[in-house]
Amino acid sequence: MSERNQRKVLTGVVANRSGNKSVKVEYSYKIPHPRFGKEIKSKTVVHAHDEANECQAGDKFEISETRPLSKLKRWRVIRVIEKALTV
């Protein structure tokens, strides 16, 4: 029996709650410009499954890659890193 591969783990900020047990997580990264080499900031928004419904906009979370859970959801919320300040 073979051992399964490691899943990708990302750290991102909740951009929006997009339904029951679903959140949109935005993560940023830097890539070098192909010609000039200067680092360019970029971001990607992914849909993630939040089983406990504990995420709010602005929270910092760790998400992990998983099997397809719905049409758009391919990630699952693992743990809370930092809660957003609520006013």
Q: Topology, pairings included?
A:
Blueprint: E1 9-17, E2 22-32, E3 39-49, E4 60-65, E5 75-82
Short description:
The protein has about 90 residues and is an all-beta fold. About 0% of the residues lie in helices and about 50% in strands.
Note the main attributes of this structure.
52% strand, mainly beta, 5-stranded mixed barrel, 87 residues, OB fold (Dihydrolipoamide Acetyltransferase, E2P), 0% helix, globular
Describe this structure in words.
This protein has 87 residues and is mainly β. It has a single domain (9-82), classed as Nucleic acid-binding proteins (OB fold (Dihydrolipoamide Acetyltransferase, E2P)), CATH 2.40.50. It is 0% helix and 52% strand. It has a 5-stranded mixed beta barrel. The radius of gyration is 15 Å and the shape is globular. The chain starts with 8 loop residues before the first strand and ends in a 5-residue tail after the last strand. The model has no long low-confidence stretch (mean pLDDT 91).
